[in-house]
Specification:
Helix content is 71%, strand content 1%. With 453 residues, the chain is mostly helical. The chain has a two-stranded antiparallel ribbon with strand order 1-2. The radius of gyration is 22 Å and the shape is globular.
């Protein structure tokens, strides 16, 4: 192993270790590691390793960054309009017991999360569940846990549902509609929904004896529907833009869209939402608050991580990991490919239970590309990239549900409970999360293999 590869691997391992142990400082750790890679690559410390700040800027996926910023800003104004509360109220009116309230609120959170950031979804739905539980004089802990893990599950259903989906879409060159059907086969949407159906049955079984009646008549009043319209317009525009190919997929002479198209769409509607809010309020207080509510923590973390991943790729780490995992393939037979697929899915589940799935997915996507190429070359058996890409997404997205720290949605939900005097220990959380996660992963794991192999 070359010196540059050893250096990059050591820095990467230390970076991950620090991000796991110092969660509040993860953006700083990510940025510091990025600066270190650029510094070492610029001074030519290791032969064959050249990595300047210009290279680093090119490694940052600005389309992903703008999508996150724009969507989070619009979602904040959407939440402030109280439209999510009204939608939740309408659902609750048609439930008759705590059991069905938890099931319906979990499903509702999942539906929203398929199009809106997971953390934002929890922030939308959790207050309604808290109000219902307070009126019924029951603990809100089980309800909030189920809402959180449901939000995290459905983030894999569409291109805009979660940062991991955005990252996958870029790496696998998938547009919005490809998450529904791609090359004539069902996409991640249907795989996710099948897993969600199995997980919902688990929730129903766990709450089967909670039959206390619910009787709530007051509906939330929504005076401003513009943020909801703009959020819907964002999703519709992303769908329409998905029919226009990128330059890499366009035929000769065909019109193609810029790489940052989706980011520009999200930012445009966010700016329109802010302009509307400023005009309506006659001041900039809520606009400034919307800017503050953007998750700069995640943005900084991702930007630094893009640079770090570019650095380890330049140093040969990605190729080394891909080659190592590909050795499991043996001759490249169907059985050996199944072993590699299984390792990727369940390794992702295990690691994502403790490591944030955003940096993990961003790291593994180029590795999966290398593995697919090497597997196909090993024995002549052509492996469709979506087999391992979708397996990675299922494992990385759902694995975060196993533990309280595995996903941002879980951390947000438990934070809401903590501020209201409910401290949830890991065993209590995992009593709900483990059967939920395993049922969803098993269904997705089997279905992807059947569809794509």
């Amino acid at each position: 192993m070359e010196a540059k590869t050893i250096f990059a691997l050591i820095v990467f391992i230390i970076t991950y270790g620090l991000m796991f142990s110092l969660q509040r400082l993860r953006p700083i750790v990510s940025a510091a590691a990025a600066v270190l890679f650029v510094f070492v690559g610029s001074i030519g410390l290791f032969p064959g390793f050249h990595y300047t700040w210009r290279d680093a800027l090119r490694e940052i996926d600005w389309n992903v960054i703008m999508m996150i910023v724009g969507t989070m800003g619009t979602v904040f104004l959407f939440i402030e309009s109280k439209m999510p509360n009204l939608l939740s109220d309408l659902i609750v009116e048609h439930t008759h017991s705590v059991k069905w309230m938890v099931v319906c609120m979990s499903l509702f959170a999942g539906i929203i999360s398929a199009f809106v950031d997971n953390v934002a979804t929890v922030l939308m739905v959790a207050p309604v569940a808290l109000a219902i539980c307070k009126k019924l004089n029951i603990s809100p802990v089980p309800s909030i846990i189920c809402i959180s893990i449901s939000s995290n599950l459905q983030g894999a259903a569409t291109l805009v549902g979660d940062t991991t989906s955005i990252l996958l879409g870029k790496a696998a060159n998938l547009d919005f509609m490809d998450f529904f059907f791609v090359e004539g086969r069902p996409g991640m949407f249907w795989v996710t929904e099948a897993g969600a159906l199995a997980a919902t049955m688990i929730i129903y079984w766990m709450f089967r004896e909670d039959n206390a009646r619910i009787d709530i008549h007051d509906r939330t009043k929504v005076e401003d529907k513009i943020p909801a319209i703009l959020l819907l317009a964002t999703v519709v525009s992303l769908i329409l833009a998905s029919f226009i190919p990128y330059k890499s997929n366009a035929a000769p002479g065909q019109f193609y869209k810029p790489d940052i198209t989706n980011g520009l769409i999200c930012m445009f509607f966010f700016l329109v939402a802010m302009a509307h809010q400023a005009e309506q309020d006659r001041h900039l207080d809520k606009v400034m608050q919307a800017m503050k509510e953007i998750d700069y923590h995640t943005v900084t973390l991702l930007a630094g991580l893009f640079v770090v991943i570019g650095g380890i790729e330049q140093a040969g780490v990605i190729d080394l990991v891909g080659s190592t995992l590909a050795r499991l393939s043996g001759s490249g037979s169907r059985i050996s490919v199944f072993i590699v697929y299984t390792v990727i899915v369940w390794m992702s589940v295990l690691l994502s239970a403790f490591i944030d799935n955003i940096p993990y997915t961003a790291t593994m996507l180029p590795v999966v590309a290398v593995i697919t190429e090497r597997l196909s070359a090993a024995g002549g058996l052509q492996i469709h990239p979506n087999l391992l890409y979708f397996g990675l997404l299922v494992g990385a997205t759902l694995g975060g549900n196993l533990t309280p720290i595995g996903a941002s949605a879980n951390i947000t939900g438990l934070g809401i409970l903590y501020h209201r005097g409910y401290e949830v220990k890991a065993p209590e959380f995992m009593r709900y999360s483990i059967p939920f996660t395993l049922s969803a992963v098993l269904v997705g794991y089997a279905l992807i293999w059947i569809l794509w192999m």
